[in-house]
Amino acid sequence: MSADNWIWQLDRIIPSTAEDCRDVVEELLDQLRQRNWDERDLFGIHLSCEEALMNALKHGNRMDASKKIEVSCRISDDKVRVEIADEGEGFDPEAIPDPTDDEYLDMPSGRGVMLMRNFMTRVEYLEGGTRVVMEKERS
Amino acid sequence: MAEYRRIEINEVGDVTVVHFKDPKIIEDMGIQELGQELFRLIEQENRLKLVLNFASVDFLSSAALGKLITLEKKAKALGGTLKLCNIRPEIYEVFLITRLNRLFDIKEDEAEALAAF
Fold first, then answer.
1. Is A105 in contact with B99 (Cβ distance < 8 A)?
2. What angle do CA A24, A26, A28 make, to 5 degrees?
3. Res. A3: pLDDT tops 80
4. What domains sit in chain A, N to C, each tagged with a CATH number?
5. Backbone phi, then psi, for A93, in 5-degree steps?
6. In a 3-state reduction of DSSP, which class is residue B58?
7. Closest-CA residue to A42 (of A107, A100, A119)
8. Rounded CA gap, A110 and A80, in Å?
């Protein structure tokens, strides 16, 4: 099936607040539940969206409510795509230390991108790290 | 007895068992409060044997993991012991991916956690 056969989509520009981020995630998860995606997929998508949005909110827009987050979600029968962009300065995801190294194992932060990469099928950072595109193929 | 908004505690011998009130440990202010309540258990109430029972938790973010890591460090610094139990498979996978299963002592259920002290 072509990845372009989207059966549901959402495009929204939201303020940098946790509540607005959560509303979008809940809307996406509701749509996936209605289409009977399994719990493990939902958990991974939920976690990845949460981590990506919190990165955009905290590290990108630095909780500045005047800055916006752009969110696009697409669902097909067998795939979900989520794209999130912030107004921050960007970052180099490759420069994040590996949190599973013994040296960093007890660091309290720095695991979000790793979790996204594990739970999603594809995670790509664009535009200097201000935009992330994530895809998950249905199990 | 102190009041807690994010946790419920009960005592089994000299061990304090912690249950979480929120099924989703996700919201930023909630995570901050949860951290403060957990830290208070060991730092102010001197509860140095803790079991964190995740039976009621079906989702947590990496920010919540950060609080657990800080709690583990604080407990260790004070000579305390922390055990985790009843973690649902999806969340346990998060611990495996991040290798935090090596940092934390994770038991199958509360009985096993209590027996391990």
1. yes
2. 70
3. no
4. 8-137 (3.30.565.10)
5. -60, -25
6. coil
7. A119
8. 25
Q: Please answer whether residues A59 and A88 qualify as being in contact, where contact means their C-beta atoms are separated by less than 8 angstroms.
A: yes
Predicted complex ipTM: 0.92
Q: Is A105 in Cβ contact with B102 (below 8 Å)? A: yes
Contact B42, B80 (CB under 8 A): yes
Predicted confidence band of residue B3 (pLDDT cuts 50, 70, 90): confident
User: Closest chain A residue to B89 measured between Cα atoms?
Assistant: A40
**What percent of chain A is predicted at pLDDT more than 70?**
97
Where does B1-117 show beta strands of DSSP type E? Answer: 7-12, 15-20, 24-25, 49-53, 59-60, 81-85, 105-107
DSSP state of B80: -
Domain ranges for chain B, please list them.
Answer: 7-115
Mean pLDDT, chain B, whole residue set: 96
Condensed to tens digits (0 to 9), the pLDDT of residues A15-72 reads: 999 999 999 999 999 999 999 999 999 999 999 999 999 999 999 999 998 999 999 9
What mean pLDDT, rounded, does chain A reach? Answer: 95
Check if CATH label 3.30.750.24 holds for domain B7-115: yes
Residue contact A108–B66, C-beta within 8 A: yes
Whole-number Å distance between alpha carbons of A114 and B98: 8
